[in-house]
Backbone:
C-alpha cells in the first residue's frame, strides 16, 4: 500500500504544472532573458523590426508569468502595455513567439460622491479603487481647490475602468470630473479627439504641448496598439512613430523636461527619455550619438538639440523612434502633436460641445437617481471585484 501511495505521489510531482510570477530585472535585454531561460535567440532574430522594438518596451519591475510542466518551460507571458503581451510557447520542444492581446473586460460608470473627508479618501471608501483616486488627484489637484471644499459638497466622475481576473486593471480613463458646491459646479472634460482636458467652452486646461522632434522625410511606421493583420493573421503593435531621415539629422526635445535616461536601451540602441509635466515622458531611440554636455538629470527646453538620427539598436535604416507616454501608458504622439490647441474651434468644438452635453446629462440623471438603490448598486458592483481569483486561466469577471 505504501509503495502504491509513493508511486502516486511521484507521478503527481512528475506531471505537475507550476506557475511562477517574476519581475523583469532592471537593465536586462530581451535577448539576455532568452539566454537565461535557455531559449534559442533565433525566435527574436526572426521577428519583424516592429516586433523587435516592442521587446524593448518591457519595463523594469514588470511582472510576468512563467509556466512549467515537468520542470520544462511551457509558456511565458510578458506584458508590454495594458493591451498587449509577448507570448512565448513550447511546441514539440521548439519555442515560438507572438504578440497577443491581454484579455480583460471594462465598464463605464458615473459616480456622485458626497465629500466627507477628502476626494482621495472618499473615492477609495466608495469604490475601493486606489488607482481611480490616484488618477483623479494627479490630474485635478491643480485645477480644483480641494482645501475650499466643504462637507457634503459633491464629487462627480465619469470614467472607464478595465477589470482583469476579478481586480481593477490598468489606469482608469477619466472622461470628466468635477465638484458641485452651493448649487455651482466646476467640471472639466476630456476631448475624445486629442485626450486633453478642456472646460465646457472648449478652452484647454492642459499646459503641455509637444512639437515634432525632427525634420523628417516620411513616417516609416505609424503608431498602433493592437491591429489584427488580415493577411498575416497576427497582431501588430507599434508603440510610437518612426520618422525616417538621413543619418546625422538633428533631434530636438519635443517639450520642456528633464532627462531621466541616456544610454543604450535594448533594441532602441542609443536612447534618451525625457520626463515632462503632467505625467508625460518622451522617448527618442536609434540615435547615432547624443548631443554633447547632456546627461541624466539635465533640464532641456522644447526645441533644444539632444542627439542625431542613426541606426543604433535593432534598425533597418536611419530613423528616429519617437515614443510618448502618459502615466506610463504609451499614447499616439499624433493625438497630441497634430490636434493640440489652446481653444477648440469649428467642427472639433461642435463635436466637443455635444460630448459635454452628453456628460452633463449623465451627471444630472445620476444625481436625480442618487437614492439608496443607487448606492446598493455600486456596493454590488464593486463587491464583485473581491473574488481573489488565483488561477492563471484567461477567466475574466463579467461586470454588468
Residues:
Amino acid at each position: 500500500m505504501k509503495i502504491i501511495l509513493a508511486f502516486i505521489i511521484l507521478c503527481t510531482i512528475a506531471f505537475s504544472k507550476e506557475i511562477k510570477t517574476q519581475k523583469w530585472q532592471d537593465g536586462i535585454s530581451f535577448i539576455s532573458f532568452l539566454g537565461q531561460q535557455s531559449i534559442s535567440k533565433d525566435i527574436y532574430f526572426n521577428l519583424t523590426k516592429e516586433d523587435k522594438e516592442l521587446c524593448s518596451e518591457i519595463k523594469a519591475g514588470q511582472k510576468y508569468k512563467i509556466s512549467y510542466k515537468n520542470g520544462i518551460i511551457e509558456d511565458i507571458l510578458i506584458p508590454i502595455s495594458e493591451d498587449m503581451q509577448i507570448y512565448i510557447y513550447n511546441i514539440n520542444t521548439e519555442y515560438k513567439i507572438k504578440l497577443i492581446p491581454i484579455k480583460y473586460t471594462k465598464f463605464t460608470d458615473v459616480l456622485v460622491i458626497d465629500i466627507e473627508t477628502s476626494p482621495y479618501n472618499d473615492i477609495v471608501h466608495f469604490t475601493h479603487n486606489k488607482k481611480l483616486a490616484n488618477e483623479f488627484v494627479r490630474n485635478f489637484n491643480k485645477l480644483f481647490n480641494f482645501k475650499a471644499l466643504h462637507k457634503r459638497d459633491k464629487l462627480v466622475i465619469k470614467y472607464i475602468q478595465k477589470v482583469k481576473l476579478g481586480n481593477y486593471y490598468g489606469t482608469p480613463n477619466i472622461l470628466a470630473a468635477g465638484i458641485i458646491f452651493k448649487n455651482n459646479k466646476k467640471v472639466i472634460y476630456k476631448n475624445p479627439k486629442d485626450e486633453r482636458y478642456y472646460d465646457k467652452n472648449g478652452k484647454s486646461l492642459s499646459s503641455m504641448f509637444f512639437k515634432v522632434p525632427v525634420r523628417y522625410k516620411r513616417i516609416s511606421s505609424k503608431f498602433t496598439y493592437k491591429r489584427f493583420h488580415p493577411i498575416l493573421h497576427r497582431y501588430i503593435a507599434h508603440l510610437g512613430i518612426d520618422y525616417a531621415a538621413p543619418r546625422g539629422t538633428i533631434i530636438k526635445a519635443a517639450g520642456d523636461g528633464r532627462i531621466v535616461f541616456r544610454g543604450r536601451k535594448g533594441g532602441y540602441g542609443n536612447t534618451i527619455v525625457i520626463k515632462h509635466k503632467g505625467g508625460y515622458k518622451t522617448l527618442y531611440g536609434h540615435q547615432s550619438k547624443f548631443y554633447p554636455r547632456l546627461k541624466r538629470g539635465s533640464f532641456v527646453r522644447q526645441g533644444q538639440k539632444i542627439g542625431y538620427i542613426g541606426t543604433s539598436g535593432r534598425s533597418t535604416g536611419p530613423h528616429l523612434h519617437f515614443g510618448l507616454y502618459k502615466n506610463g501608458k504609451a499614447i499616439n504622439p499624433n493625438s497630441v502633436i497634430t490636434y493640440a490647441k489652446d481653444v477648440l474651434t469649428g467642427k472639433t468644438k461642435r463635436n466637443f460641445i455635444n460630448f459635454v452635453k452628453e456628460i452633463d446629462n449623465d451627471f444630472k440623471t445620476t444625481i436625480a437617481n442618487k437614492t439608496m438603490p443607487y448606492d446598493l448598486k455600486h456596493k454590488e458592483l464593486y463587491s464583485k471585484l473581491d473574488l481573489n481569483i488565483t488561477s492563471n486561466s484567461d477567466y475574466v469577471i463579467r461586470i454588468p
